[in-house]
Amino acid sequence: MIYGLHAVREALRAGVRPIQRLLVLGTDRQFGEISRLAREQRVPVRVEPRAALDRLVPSGHHQGVVGVVAAKAYAEPDDILASAQVEGQTPLLVLLDGVEDPHNLGAILRTAEASGVQGVFIPERRAVGLTSVVAKASAGAVDYMPVGRVPNLSRLIERLQDAGIWVYALDAEAPKAYTELDFSGPVALVFGGEGTGVRPGVRDACDEAAHIPMLGKVSSLNVSASAAIVLYEALRQRREGAGKKL
């Protein structure tokens, strides 16, 4: 299932995940656009009471809209890399080392899609996958951002390096600040999971590591906040290099 106004609307627009049927609270103006999009694609629309939607989405955060969809397929790592390297593109990729909170993954996908990332990689084990909660938290970005799963992040890093992509890890203990890194060329960014950060073996495989300066009493930022900060620094550098303002 996928739920929430933004997530369902973007799924219908993107057409990546076929929606089998749409369940809505009513037919008033609030649900009019989504119902119209569904009918244009010959998706059955059914009006259901709130209790029925609450049973499908126990958290109750469905905003009156639930879509029954086919599971989103993971992208092939080869396809993500090839897409990032087409002529006119400068690779900007994200690797997530053990992110387990679906809200964090969804927020990262949303920021990645907005900042020009061509693909996100997650490990096959000890990490959240593309669940309905992730789709909701991404506000529809999951339909546009390719996500690949790999058995070993360190081997993926070696492969990216062989392809001429610099790999940077974000690590609170690194001596260099993230603003000192050069994001203007082909880059992959590695962010660690909640609590543990980037694992030592993965960090050691990277070309360099950097930290986000912290001036307060809290020792770290949420991984989705860290990703947003660094990805928009990358976007700033790239746009400045192209003679554009952020």
UniProtKB/TrEMBL annotation:
<dbReference type="GO" id="GO:0003723">
    <property type="term" value="F:RNA binding"/>
</dbReference>
<dbReference type="InterPro" id="IPR029064">
    <property type="entry name" value="Ribosomal_eL30-like_sf"/>
</dbReference>
<dbReference type="InterPro" id="IPR001537">
    <property type="entry name" value="SpoU_MeTrfase"/>
</dbReference>
<keyword id="KW-0808">Transferase</keyword>
<feature type="domain" description="RNA 2-O ribose methyltransferase substrate binding">
    <location>
        <begin position="1"/>
        <end position="75"/>
    </location>
</feature>
<protein>
    <submittedName>
        <fullName>RNA methyltransferase, TrmH family, group 3</fullName>
        <ecNumber>2.1.1.-</ecNumber>
    </submittedName>
</protein>
<dbReference type="GO" id="GO:0032259">
    <property type="term" value="P:methylation"/>
</dbReference>
<dbReference type="Pfam" id="PF08032">
    <property type="entry name" value="SpoU_sub_bind"/>
</dbReference>
<dbReference type="GO" id="GO:0006396">
    <property type="term" value="P:RNA processing"/>
</dbReference>
<dbReference type="InterPro" id="IPR029026">
    <property type="entry name" value="tRNA_m1G_MTases_N"/>
</dbReference>
<comment type="similarity">
    <text>Belongs to the class IV-like SAM-binding methyltransferase superfamily. RNA methyltransferase TrmH family.</text>
</comment>
<dbReference type="GO" id="GO:0005829">
    <property type="term" value="C:cytosol"/>
</dbReference>
<dbReference type="Pfam" id="PF00588">
    <property type="entry name" value="SpoU_methylase"/>
</dbReference>
<dbReference type="GO" id="GO:0008173">
    <property type="term" value="F:RNA methyltransferase activity"/>
</dbReference>
<keyword id="KW-0489">Methyltransferase</keyword>
<dbReference type="InterPro" id="IPR013123">
    <property type="entry name" value="SpoU_subst-bd"/>
</dbReference>
<dbReference type="InterPro" id="IPR004441">
    <property type="entry name" value="rRNA_MeTrfase_TrmH"/>
</dbReference>
<dbReference type="InterPro" id="IPR029028">
    <property type="entry name" value="Alpha/beta_knot_MTases"/>
</dbReference>
